[in-house]
Amino acid sequence: MRTDTPQAIRLSDYRPPAFLIDEVALTFDLHPTATRVTARLQVRRNREHSEPLRFNGERLKPISVAIDGRVLSDGERTIDDEGLTIPSAPDAFVLETEVEIDPENNKALEGLYMSGGRFCTQCEAEGFRKITFWPDRPDVLSRFTVRVEADRSFRHLLSNGNLIEQGELEGGRHYAVWNDPFLKPSYLFALVAGELDVLEDSLVTMTGRTVELKIFVDPGMAPRAAYAMDALKRSMRWDEEAFGREYDLDLFMIVAVRDFNFGAMENKGLNIFNSSLLLADPATATDADFERIESVVAHEYFHNWTGDRITCRDWFQLCLKEGLTVFRDQSFSADMRGHAVQRIKDVKALRARQFAEDQGPLAHPVRPSSYLKIDNFYTATIYEKGAEIIRMLKILLGAEAFRAGMDLYFERWDGHATTVEAFIKCFEEASGSDLSHFFAWYEQAGTPRVSLESQYDEAAKTLTLNFAQETPPTPGQPVKQALPIPIAFGLLDGEGRPLRFEHDGEPQDETVIVLDQPQASITLTGVDRFPVISALRGFSAPVVLTTDLEPKDKYVLLAADPDLFNRWEAGQELARDLILRRAAGSPDEVNEERYADALGRALSDQSADPAFKALMLALPSEPDLALVMSPADPQAIHEARDALRTRLSVHLESQLRELHNGLQDLGEFSPDAEGAGRRALRNAALDLLLANPRSDNAAYAHGHFEAAGNMTDAMAGLSALMQVGGEAFGQALADFYERWTSEPLVIDKWFAVQARDPSETAIGRVMGLTAHPAFDTKNPNRLRALVSTFANFNPARFHDPSGAGYRFLADQILAVDRFNPMIAARLVDPLGGWRRYKPELGALMRAELERIAATAGLSKNVYELATRALA
Ligand code: PHE
Ligand code: ZN
After folding, report:
1. At residue 198, what are phi and psi to the nearest 5 degrees?
2. Which of 189, 278, 378 to mutate to test the pocket of ligand 1 (most atoms within 8 A of CB)?
3. Where does the signal sequence lie (predicted)?
4. Do the Cβ atoms of 301 and 271 come closer than 8 Å?
5. Which of 462, 792, 799, 823 has an alpha carbon 20 to 30 Å from 265's alpha carbon atom?
């Protein structure tokens, strides 16, 4: 156990910075193991106080510290593990520091490090302090000039802003000087140096300015950046049209790197991407990859306004940039790919990640009030629930007032670091509404449970809806208040026809009510026929809704709800109940038959979008089911779900084969929504067909795998063969590996598919793969492909009753924590839900968490998550 219990940082302790830095000139003399960083800062005391100057700095080898040209003696400044202190500094002065750092041996991938022989940086949230002494907090905004010097073999020398000078130096070296005219905090600083290929394009903005666009990638990979470039141009155009936001520099650059802790980073004018979220072509990337790339390129680009031009005052305000930017990228993707399909995918992800987080010991508000390591708060709650809050705001205020609030926010806060309160105030002012009650969505953790009961009075033609809400306790928040919950709904009759009604005297097809009390009752009039209620349309709020709808009502919704989200949702609820009945040992065979028939009808609906049908065809996932079974029994869930899938496969066999045959790609591959939707449906049909791995089906899967002309189909074939198992799967894996050995992003997929294999022998194979020559714990993508995929997407094996899955994960966490705490901490989550599982399993999970927490020399990151998970 650590003896020095780390100190929590609290929102209530926020104080403005003691010193500000108006301008900075940095010089990097790059060398892989000994880089010199010289910093010349224009420092100014912030208001009147007599506090010492205290700048952050970690893992820096100090060379010299000088004020106004005079080198400070040891007595005039102290340097410890956390930074530089100057007890008595003048009110305004030039601080010059020189330090040495070692990028080559930086395996935490934070600060300046090397990836694939190239220099790159990652500074969010607190990486800049590993580069130079600095008040490393987002409310210190400065103008940066950066000079980069390196051997000429590092051909491209990049940093933020505009290139103002470059040239040759003696000894085979060269240099470049960059100036960023916009104020920015240190976390948005970036530098890249190396031999890269570049894909170039340009865009004329809404005011007629030409912006140069450059995407830098590993040599030979430029063609694979074409899709990202296309997505970038569409994002730029979309932000002009949807939010009136124009790009502000004359140059926008993206660099792809192989070793990256997260997805991508919005550094001003120089985004850095994990190569898995940038490089794609039909042969090596799946449709899901293309879709992710489109959304992440958009996300990082949109940060230019929501994140860079306006940033966060402190890290408690992280959702200010992340929730808002996710909302913006989701809106963009919906416009690109269809609103209903996008909404379903976003809600699936929200439930799988955020609802799970809310139910466990790591539950926290969208705006937390304390932390040990901010790196641990890049969570689904901050991102995805943060986006849901913005979405509700738009529903509550209406599109016009929402846009007016955004406009005011951009106008008022441009060039500043601000807070969630200041953001919400813009909407209050622009719309004239009081949002004080709404603010609780940011401060209260937990997923509200909403129940709906209804009474229809046939004689009076009235329908009474009784709503109630309750939010279960979460750590540190035992008592919850009622939240304002927008609930969109409409009515259908028993035949599935839309049914009009009157609410407040107005005839309507659909309406939104706001449930802001623990209970509320509303009466609709003019309801001519017995109604089926379609509630929470489009998932209008991030809540768990239970209704008194009977299965027959849900079948009506499944067949005919004009709200496609609820059509999909009805199918999911019906399937979920059938699986849970099987898991409890009492299958409802009559309704399983009925469900299979209903699914068959949905599949033959010619007017429906194939992408939508593909979603209809997928049963709720095992992790989703574990959230609604108490206590959760992953083995029982796996078997029950499989059994239902097998029944559906047998029942729908001819239809599935027809779909599969009828949807082959005819023309050239196109990654757009339409082509992807057809492939998704075709591959979903194959997947369900193989739930019955009879030999003719196995041969069919084999044929699909062999004939695959793109990575989407190849992976679908491989997954289908996984269901067959044995020699068929083994041979396909071997062929696949051999074909793609030299393509790291494809080899990641090869690891991941094996990590997902639920068969009994798979756990041994997964452990064995850690000794495979291509396995590399230091590369986050490779580690995630095997270890995270196993722990998050293979519940049947991860929760093996022997505890071997848990032990494997804990071993990996401890090993990785020695060099990359950020990544190690992200692996803790699957153990966090231990209280929700069967007691035998929960005890084994807990024991592994205890083993982790008791390990000497643990990082703050892992320490925080393991102890919170145990509390
Ligand atoms: N700010 C990045 C994003 O969401 C995420 C990130 C955080 C990347 C920290 C790296 C490190 O766009
Ligand atoms: Zn972001």
Report:
1. -130, 135
2. 378
3. none
4. yes
5. 792
